[in-house]
Amino acid sequence: MKVNLQAVNFNVDRKLVDFVQEKLDKLEKYYDKIVSSDVFLKVENTSDKENKTVEIKINVPGDDFVVKKTAKSFEEGVDLAVDSLERVIVKRKEKLRAN
């Protein structure tokens, strides 16, 4: 799956890019028609510890899924977002199968 990663207000390191790619690749075992995904990583300028925002947009034929999560680290945010996407994708697949 093609992953477009965009980091806002900071430089992303290779380890984080690989982590995101690996997590998103796992989504393909739930739904194999995923075309691409856009990942936006942002650091919010707040005094909160949870200031890392991860937004993932998954492109599938006929639809787009967008999930936005905020957490203490990007890894945690990606985990939360991928878990949500997993549920959404499985729900969509079941709906398609029912029709």
TrEMBL record:
Record's InterPro entries? RHF-like (IPR036567), RHF/RaiA (IPR003489)
Return the CDD domains for the record. RaiA
Q: Which Gene3D superfamilies match?
A: Ribosome hibernation promotion factor-like
Name of the molecule in the record: Ribosome-associated translation inhibitor RaiA
- Record the organism: Flavobacterium celericrescens
At the highest ranks, the source species' classification is:
Bacteria, Pseudomonadati, Bacteroidota, Flavobacteriia, Flavobacteriales
The coding gene here is raiA
